[in-house]
Give the backbone structure.
Amino acid sequence: MTAPAYSRVCASAAEALAGIEDGSTVLVGGFGMAGMPVALVDALIEQGATDLTIVSNNAGNGDTGLAALLAAGRVRKVVCSYPRQHDSWVFDGLYRAGKVELELVPQGTLAERLRAAGAGIGAFFTPTGAGTPLTEGAETRELDGRLQVLQYPLPGDVALIAAHRADEVGNLVYRKTARNFGPVMATAARTTVVQVSEVVPAGSLDPEAIVTPGIYVDRIVVTGERAARGEQ
Amino acid sequence: MEQHAERLDTAGLAAAVARDIPTGSYVNLGIGRPTAVAAYLDPAQRVTLHTENGMLGMGPPAEGDAIDPDLTNAGKQPVTELPGAAYFHHADSFAMMRGGHLDVCVLGAFQVSARGDLANWHTGEPDAIPAVGGAMDLAIGAKRVVVMMSLFAKDGSPKLVPECSYPLTGLACVDRVYTEVATFAVTPEAVMVTATYGMAFAELAERLQVPIVAG
């Protein structure tokens, strides 16, 4: 018999992140600060796991969130599409000093590798990146008249995402473009942790409008609307 | 081939790109200079803007009380939504590009080759931190790939070249190139000049190492 569904709601972010091991691959949602699970990333710094591989679209902004995790020396490798931003000085410094490894992945290939991991797809071919330095050494075939490159799934041990609302069985809805990587990362990790602005009773969310069904969600933390929006 | 006496300024270039976008198109405008094209689209064109972070029906930049940190464009600037807008997650957003559903994308470039190869993501300099974002997905996925750039670099060297020396974004993917002095259609047969602005065809032919024909 499984635990009752409402037990997915954790009392704190610290409780939600219990058990994350050193060397884990952590998928972190967000596009810039929209959809960034700031409270969960802060809790990951407190939790102490190190030697992490972080999969996220960007490599941290300013000095908080992912940038603080990087600055704390917890990250061995970043897998992302767009590390360089006007406020990515923490990553920039570590990268130039050779203290963090970078795997640069085209954004659509990043999303599709996550989707493949969640959908049980063993590998796929895509024209994105064919003939460019980012796919050097990868198997390339001509399919449907185009050069296409073999890509593998990108599974996580843990996904940390932000959504707008959850119901008590873990169904999620998002807000606007803060949705971004959340739904696909939720499918791609063994354990998915979500921060939300509120948890509502089962039956309160329109079943037709659920974006992430609760089967993908393991732990829920209520952090308040401001935190869910990535604001301090 | 149209011939105009004056070079295009920044606004003129954006307007020229906007004018040629077919009515009813779904369009993605890249970060930087291409973003400015939106302001020159005529409502009668009924263009729907796609932003790769998960939205169709993107509206103008948000100001004042309309700023919502959950609603940004690909450049992470606050934007608005128009009636008929739709939100979706990243795998769906990039399936729209990679699956060939977008009609037009507009991108900046460091270089475009005579074959239509695009280089726009990395200078290749040793201390540069590479960042690719969605450029490679747009380059291979959109039905029409439009580049807007200056035709000559600061040192005067052309950016429309026989072979790109910068790291490539995509192979043989560029269809149109808009610059301050000329617009080009890149076809399998030839690079065709479709309009000139303040520079004669003969001077263009002399300054470019790429063979060109008048369209």
Notes: The CA atoms of residues 81 and 104 of chain A lie 5 Å apart. Residues 107-119 of chain A form the longest helix (13 residues).
